[in-house]
Amino acid sequence: MVSVSISVSQVVTSATASDEAMEVAKKSLFAMSDTEILEGIYATHVVSHEHDSFDVRSLFSITQSIIKCSKQIIDNIDHKTTNVTEPIGVFDYLIQIMLNLKPMATQVYADTRDGITIAPSFSTPLCLLKSIIREVPCKAPGEENAHDATLKILNKVSKYSWEAKAVLALAAFSLEYGEFWLTARHQQSDQLAKSVAFLKGVPVLLKPENLKQRGQAVAQLNNVIMSTLQVIDCIFELEKLSITYNELAPLISPSLLVMKKLQTYMKLKQLFQIPTEIMEVMKTLIFFKDNVNTTILDGSTKKPVHIDVLRTTNVLLFISSLDISEDYISLLKTIYDFTKKSNEYKIVWVPVVEKWTTELQVKFETLRVKMPWYTVGQAGAHIAGIKYIKEDWNFHGKPMLVVLNSKSELQHSNALRMISIWGKEAFPFDQKKEEELLLSLRDTWFTAVIDGIHTSVTEWIKQEKYIFFYGGDSVWTNQFKEKASALKNDDILKRSKISLELYHVEKNANNDAGDDSFNTFWSAIETMFHIKVSSKQIDDVVRQVQKLLSYKDDKSGWAVLIQGRRIVTIGAGSTIYTVLEKYYTWNQQVTITIENFGQVFEQQHKEEVVKIGHVCSCFSIPSAARSTLAAMICYECGNLMEISVRYKCCHVKK
């Protein structure tokens, strides 16, 4: 029984091996990470354009028959001795559904013997199977032994397809496994079987005391074997279905592109599971399989280059529709100039267009001319991996910058957000760097995200001035401006050398996207919200952002007071306005100086908020991707907020 369990743990859990993998094998298995183990296995695979040298399905059919017959023998012994039953889990249930699918067309084989489907030209790869089983040593079971044997076995099957590797490993195991149980079944009636069974230790295993002791192990081993068999069978069933769909392609030409995208999606899913050269991922992401032109445009020379230029580099994928502003291009030009010297980072524009028109083609060419980095595709071309970009990277039309390293490992799902705040200080644009930068933001976060909204604002911040940012409907903003302007020109403030400026966050009446302070301002605040929430940092900064967002659509007004880069207070229009109205009362209670004006104003505002009592918030993030939505706590009452399209507080007054 020991030798059988060793065989399963070492043969069935294998993949492939090569010289590079053998180097990895020298390192203790327990000292290696999952990534190192996968790299060792994946590196052994020899990419071959030749077909497998034997009929894989015929070998699998024979293997399947051996294992199922062996299972019947085990079940008879198992139920008589241990009463162990196998529960049907969710995975087994799904497998059963898959196995019960009836494809519209299947491949026909010429010879079927007792339920075993064998191709007429099938030749058993006996020498290879014997060679594989010889690599399974008779050592005590353990992960180290299994890993070493795995790499040795996979060396022998390195040139075969992944499906063939799995079948060969299982077939080699079934050769030993089936012989073991065959002799167990016939040892009482056949002298030859009895002798072979004796050499294999069958009588020892079948002793009642051993069966009682090892019955559970036999049942568990049997479950592992059957699960492995079902998975491989499922792979072949999926292949049959793909053959069926390919045969129907001429009849469903409108769906052909969808099918190709689905195939690309599944391939990308597999590629991103293991370290893969970035160039191979880019080929799959951008080009359809039948596209022989694998070139991209070098924006610096305006000439096409082979996609090989991305080999061994980190890639910044700028993914967008054609509705992008000059601000994004200007922002990335700064990063392009910063990274082009080292040649370690390449920016690649991936334009996403569902349906091309002549107008969009012209717009594409206009945008591409402005970009000095690489651009994929031509006007009218479609991106092969659009499904993956939308579903796994959560692209919903808004520009994003996906960062991949040279092994195609995701470093950041959207670095555009933090680059828009910190610029080249965000280098190397990964998640770790973003977390470091976020930790540095406390009461200066507001100016970090809105700095640059207007040249005057930038200058006021540098001069450490007090600044009121305010918004709301025209009635309230006019009233606020009148009161705030009076405060700005107050003699006490002037004598104290307190400089106060006003900035109205308003929508542009002419709908000029290039001069819309409203959208620019709130987009920056939403950006900060995305960064903090996606990084799971729920702190005072998030509560301030949440509070400010709740005022976005509030017609009754809002205001933020800052001094230089530091936030003084954030409040609703009613409370801020009341503080301004009472200025001539509270300025008599304390001597106003440039140092304490902010503290005094904040204290007066807190007192007004306490008088009114808390009002629970409600705010929306229209551009929020599903992956960034997170539970929020109401900043007023501390209760959980319900998440739908909008965040709104679930607080109920007692």
What's this model, at a glance?
It comes from Prunus avium (Cherry). The protein is an alpha+beta fold and 654 residues long.
Written description of the protein model:
With 654 residues, the protein is of the alpha+beta class. It folds into three domains: 2-247, no CATH class; 260-438, Glutaredoxin (3-Layer(aba) Sandwich), CATH 3.40.30; 441-649, no CATH class. 51% of the residues lie in helices and 11% in strands. The longest helix has 40 residues, at 208-247. Residues 1-22, 81-112 and 623-627 have low confidence and may be disordered.
**Helicity, as a percent range:** 40-55%
The CA-CA distance between the termini, in Å, is 68 Å
**Assembly level:** single chain
Work out the count of structural domains: 3
In total, the number of strands is 17
Put simply, the count of helices is 27
Residue share in β-strands? 5-15%
Mean pLDDT: 78
Shape: elongated
**Biggest beta sheet summary:** 7 strands, mixed
- Which structural class matches the secondary elements? alpha+beta
Rg over C-alpha atoms, rounded to the nearest angstrom:
34 Å
Q: List low-confidence stretches.
A: 1-22, 81-112, 623-627
Lateral arrangement of strands in the main beta sheet = 4-3-7-6-5-8-9
